[in-house]
């Protein structure tokens, strides 16, 4: 026992530490015969340094005196073996994560030790080295601050010319393993939160700025996949497609939250770079497709998917600039129509609709980018992500004005009706939405009585699915409360028709095989239905719109089974 205790104490002594370091310094070649010994020596050094950082400052004095970090770099170069590389990266990650003193961190980051380890020519193909490498990079990023960041970048004059920690990590941004992708994103956020203006200028300039466009382009590809699932005409059941849809939608939401985290850093150059790519590559294509301002292409979204994308983006990313931009583009056909009517009434020749639209977009640009302009100016010069709208020739056409968002609100398709109405509710109830735009939505785009009648007609339609019925009921409750309205005579008749149909549906179930379970089902479903009905607009997942579209499609595989009869009874209770 005493011998074991002596070894434990001796192992963390400065004398033993010097002995181990000298052993490592004596190794000139790493091969199969001494590989395990080298690994043991590195492990012992890291454990002792971690202990010494908290309990014995003399150990770290020796660590610096003997330039152990340089020895690690040397072993990495002569090792030429993935096992040595993986082990060293693992031990260094542990050491960096556990050292607390600023002196220790500063020394480890100095003299290009970390950059040399990062830049080492690893062979990642077909092995398990990548997770160790990314874990090491993430550990380093967790320790950087404004004082140590300068040790990891290379500067020429007033310009950053190299940042290996960040640039090498981005090479794994689209790695197949989710854990590695998550680590890269955590690392990037660590970097953004401690960077200064010089570093941000480097990060938001090509080629590193391509990371943001690649990120949004990947997000767009995922949205196209969602659209494909929604409109797939295959043998998979609706429930199977909905499950697949939910999994893919979770990935989209994860990416949106990451974009929100980047913008939330609050750095002007970074936020503007992200927003420009987001508007150019995702938001504008969705809006232009939605409002029929561009030709249909393979990369376009269907209307229901466009509505989902924009609604989810406003929910997750949000912000005054994005909210007002989306509202402004959606409202343009009606603003342009009002101006054109006024001009004709005054016999004013005026300029062309294209010029009017160009001026309108210029003003909208100023609103979007004002928050990202360090000087607070109102004019945006040069070519930017919104410029493509100016050259859109069909934007002021009669068809665009006739359709617009109202083309979906008053559609015979309940899915398009609810999807478009949900987007407008998000805009109308959002505190960041400009007062003028909000009033436009409530007074012009959403005629109060017509909206109520449209919703009641859906409820009175015996052919709609239970899910559509439930969601329409949610919209009706929210709309009546939002507008402070009561049902008129005609509306009351539609509501009573819907009520009678629901009552008759439930009454039929008393003659069905599950009639004795109706009271228990009513008690079980009551709280759930009440909770769904009271769900606020900003917390409601717009994925229901895509699920509605899938549920509208007939499922011929459903035979008259006991489970189908049970579900029919439950649905009758719900509605």
Quick recap of the structure?
This protein is 69% helix and 1% strand. It is mainly α.
Structure description:
By secondary structure, this protein is mostly helical. The protein folds into two domains: 10-198, Leucine-rich Repeat Variant (Alpha Horseshoe), CATH 1.25.10; 225-574, no CATH class. Helices cover 69% and strands 1% of the residues. Strand 1 (154-156) and strand 2 form a beta hairpin. Helix 6 packs parallel to helix 9 (129-141), helix 13 packs parallel to helix 15 and helix 24 (448-459) packs antiparallel against helix 25 (466-483). Residues 339-352 and 374-402 have low confidence and may be disordered. InterPro entries: CLEC16A/TT9 (IPR039272), CLEC16A/TT9_N (IPR019155). Keywords: Autophagy.
Number of strands: 2
Strand order of the largest sheet: 1-2
Oligomerization state of this entry? single chain
Q: Provide the structure class.
A: mainly alpha
Q: Please outline the major beta sheet.
A: 2 strands, antiparallel
Shape label: elongated
**C-alpha termini separation:** 75 Å
The fraction of residues in strands falls at: under 5%
Mean pLDDT: 81
Low-confidence regions: 339-352, 374-402
Number of domains: 2
Helix content: 55-70%
> Which value, in Å, is the CA radius of gyration?
31 Å
List the total number of helices: 29
Summary tags:
29 helices; Leucine-rich Repeat Variant; autophagy; 2 strands; two-stranded antiparallel sheet; mainly alpha; CLEC16A/TT9; 575 residues
């Amino acid at each position: 026992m005493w011998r074991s205790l002596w070894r434990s104490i001796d192992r963390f002594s400065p004398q033993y530490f010097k002995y181990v370091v000298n052993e490592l310094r004596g190794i000139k070649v790493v091969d199969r015969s001494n590989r395990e010994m080298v690994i043991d020596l590195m492990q012992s050094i890291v454990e002792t340094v971690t202990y010494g950082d908290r309990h014995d400052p003399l150990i770290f004095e020796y660590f610096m005196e003997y330039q152990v970090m340089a020895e690690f770099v040397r072993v990495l170069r002569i090792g030429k073996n993935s096992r040595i590389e993986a082990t060293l990266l693992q031990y260094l990650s542990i050491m960096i994560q556990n050292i607390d003193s600023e002196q220790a961190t500063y020394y480890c980051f100095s003299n290009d030790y970390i950059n040399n380890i990062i830049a080492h020519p690893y062979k990642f193909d077909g092995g398990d080295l990548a997770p160790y490498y990314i874990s090491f990079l993430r550990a380093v990023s967790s320790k950087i601050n404004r004082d140590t960041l300068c040790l990891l970048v290379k500067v020429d004059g007033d310009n950053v010319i190299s940042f290996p920690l960040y640039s090498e990590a981005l090479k794994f941004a689209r790695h197949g393993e989710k854990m590695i992708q998550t680590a890269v994103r955590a690392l990037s956020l660590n970097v953004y939160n401690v960077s200064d203006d010089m570093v941000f200028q480097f990060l938001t300039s090509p080629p590193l700025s391509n990371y943001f466009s690649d990120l949004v382009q990947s997000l767009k590809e995922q949205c196209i996949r969602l659209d494909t699932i929604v409109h797939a005409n295959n043998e998979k059941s609706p429930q199977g497609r909905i499950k697949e849809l939910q999994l893919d939608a979770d990935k989209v939401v994860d990416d949106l939250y990451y974009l929100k985290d980047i913008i939330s850093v609050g750095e002007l150059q970074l936020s503007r770079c992200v927003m420009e790519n987001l508007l150019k590559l995702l938001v504008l294509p969705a809006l232009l497709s939605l409002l029929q301002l561009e030709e249909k292409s393979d990369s376009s979204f269907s209307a229901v998917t466009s509505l989902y994308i924009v609604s989810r983006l406003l929910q997750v990313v949000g912000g005054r600039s994005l909210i007002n931009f989306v509202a402004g583009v959606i409202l343009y056909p009606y603003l342009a129509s009002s101006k054109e009517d006024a001009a004709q009434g005054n016999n004013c020749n005026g300029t062309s609709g294209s010029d009017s639209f160009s001026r309108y977009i210029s003003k909208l640009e100023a609103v979007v980018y004002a928050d990202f302009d360090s000087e607070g100016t109102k004019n945006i010069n040069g070519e930017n992500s919104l410029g493509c709208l100016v050259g859109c020739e069909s934007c002021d056409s009669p068809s665009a004005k006739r359709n617009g968002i109202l083309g979906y609100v008053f559609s015979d398709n309940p899915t398009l009706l609810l999807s478009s109405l949900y987007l407008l509710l998000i805009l109308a109830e959002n505190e960041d939405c400009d007062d003028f735009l909000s009033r436009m939505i409530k007074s012009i785009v959403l005629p109060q009585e017509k909206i109520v009648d449209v919703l009641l007609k859906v409820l009175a339609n015996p052919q709609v699915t239970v899910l559509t019925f439930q969601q329409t009921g949610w919209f009706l409750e929210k709309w009546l409360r939002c507008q402070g309205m009561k049902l008129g005579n005609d509306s009351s008749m539609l509501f009573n028709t819907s009520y009678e149909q629901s009552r008759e549906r439930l009454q039929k179930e008393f003659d069905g095989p599950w009639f004795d379970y109706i009271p228990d089902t009513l008690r079980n479903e009551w709280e759930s239905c009440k909770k769904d009905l009271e769900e606020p607009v900003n917390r409601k997942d717009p994925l229901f719109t895509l699920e509605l579209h899938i549920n509208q499609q007939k499922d011929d595989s459903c035979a008259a089974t006991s489970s189908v009869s049970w579900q029919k009874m439950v649905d009758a209770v719900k509605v």
